[in-house]
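To the structural biology subgroup,

Please find below the input and predicted structure for Glutamine--tRNA ligase, which we are adding to the shared reference set this quarter. The sequence is reproduced verbatim from the submission form. If anyone notices a discrepancy with their own records, reply to this email rather than editing the shared folder directly, so we keep one authoritative version.
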Amino acid sequence: MGAMAAEEAEEALGLFTGIGLSEAKARETLRNGALSALLRRAVLQARSALGPALDKATGTLLYNAAARLKDPKHLGFLVGYIARREILTDLQLNAALEYVRSHPLEPLDAADFEQACGVGVCITPEQIEEAVEAVISEHRAELLAERYHFNMGLLMGEARNRLRWADGKTIKNEVDLQVLHLLGPKTEADLEKKPKAAKARLAPVEKQKVAVVENGDVGTETKSLLEQLRGEALKFHKPGENYKTEGYVVTPNTMALLQQHLAITGGQVRTRFPPEPNGILHIGHAKAINFNFGYAKANGGVCFLRYDDTNPEKEEEKYFTAIRDMVEWLGYQPYKVTHASDYFDQLYTWALELIRRGQAYVCHQKVEEIKGHNPPPSPWRDRPVEESLLLFEDMRKGKFGEGEATLRMKLVMEDGKMDPVAYRVKFTPHHRTGDKWCIYPTYDYTHCLCDSIEHITHSLCTKEFQARRSSYFWLCNALDVYCPVQWEYGRLNLLYTVVSKRKIIRLVETGAVRDWDDPRLFTLTALRRRGFPPEAINNFCARVGVTVAQATMEPHLLEACAREVLNEQAPRAMAVLEPLKVTITNFPAPKTLEVLVPNFPADESRGFHKVSLHPTIYIEETDFREEADKGYKRLAPGQPVGLRHAGYVIAVQNVIKDVSGRVIELEVTCTKSDVAEKPKAFIHWVSEPLACEVRLYERLFLHKNPEDPSEVPGGFLSDLNPDSLRVVHNALVDSSVLSARPFDKFQFERLGYFSVDPDSKEGKMVFNRTVTLKEDPGKA
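Predicted structure (tokenized):
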């Protein structure tokens, strides 16, 4: 039976790689029994209609149909349309999946289905050209007035409305070409930022509508980031006025403790960022960092970086280092770096005091017994104080095994949880205290007391900790120590990703990503490696705002923030991803011409770099066609183009092909731009370039919520995008980037923003594409 299973697995592996999946992706698919069974059915059905050789485009449609179909009974129906070449695009497949989802009853109405999915609709280049021409004609006056400040997305949207089943990229290219034809190349004025008052799409970083916490309520104001975080705007209490906060518990000792607190802090705002050192920070932590450090900065205060290192089983030194690196990368310097373990002695002393006051006891219920919201009451809750003191000392001395005894506090939390655990036994050496302790405090016990020791004024945490607010106040008051105020804010989540440590480890183990810093992830180390500037991440957090409600955002909003920053920060260079050799037969110099290229064309005062122009240059394969269709503006026989920055126009004289008929070289002549007829387009080029590797990234997951079983029944590993990474091994880049170091950023003209990857080595640089130059309308 084992041999038969192995044979079946090998057969399925061959089927899956035969449709274009990588071997790693195919093996990962095999581990998902339900998905692999559906995909096998789909491939066999398609092969029976089309033969054994299926192209990658068909394979991708089959994979997506198998992975995203909610009801497998419709698989054969959909595959039939794919095999008959009646469903050809992901747009059609999305419509087909939505149709079968919304029509659960059989039989399906084939005619209605076909109409809903665009079956048989053939959109020609001429139709796209005509649709774009019509749309541009309607907006011609505004285009001529606003030029490149006009919202080009409006043109694409209206063209798509006219031709629903047209390919979005083709429409975008046609819009770009016709706009260029109408307006000509961008001028310096076009490259200047549009005045904020006229900005129609994304709100500026500094002014935006945000939900502001007002003692638990939410109000809407238009505020800058610092204004959002100033105490008056948030309606937070002033230092020393904790008692004015709703729900704050005032005891006979409160006012004296607050006076002592003010004497120590001088009325200074104090916050803390308290991560657990058991994983890498992600985009959600960026909001927490900005909120805690930003609130302190906006109010003239300080922020501690405190590691919550109370669980020695899960902590690793690399996490401590990476967390601090990321805090500093985002532009923040901790006032002081502390650890919960710094206070273990004091916390133990306070635990003894809590027992003496009759507020804690040693319990022997098992972990399984006290889980959930309605566990049975502890039979040891009323044991004598002296007995609990002796037993707690025995816990410290290691006389109890793990799980045999805990110290519990006598309180009921907001969520109904009764008597939370304060200490548990763990025979695990601690990275800082070694073997000194075999009992470790819990978050519920440690957090508020560490805040008290550090005289934190505002304990800012995410909304899920609201249920712990009363226990926070209770414990400080039970020990008669200074009690800070806990304030909650909404978590920041991002669609199309996972951020939990367990799930990222699974992605690494299965080979879906390389490591925690794989640029397809949304950990902060991954975002840095991909090339996202820290300012962009901080601006994104500012746009999300200080909301009390959970915020779930689209990745393209973060990408928009990156474009804004990189447009100002990333010097320009030229690179070619798919090179086509071009020989200039009448080169106007003995060997070389030196070309000055502005680092920032919109502001030439920021300097130039030199690029050599030789008789041999390389252009993008896609910038040449043997036959120029109507609307095509780039290089073709009889249709010259300009070379960006070079001051020359080239015209094709001879097309050289290999034995298979593929174009491998062009012979051209050049003419000075000032005497040549103005070309329809200018293209980028490289000459005597550096060979490099370029990594092009797309979303890692196909669905917005890969962890949602209703959206992805097969689990998040079944939702991986097979096209999330494309590696261009033999790209070319101009030599101006030779001295660049890892994480240096460039705009490769006409291609996007790119960052030097740490994998770069002498003789072979590696670049990661951070974002494209413009937002893909399909992702918005």
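Summary notes: DSSP finds 25 helices and 28 strands in the chain. Residues 197-222 have pLDDT under 50 and may be disordered.

Regards,
Lab coordination
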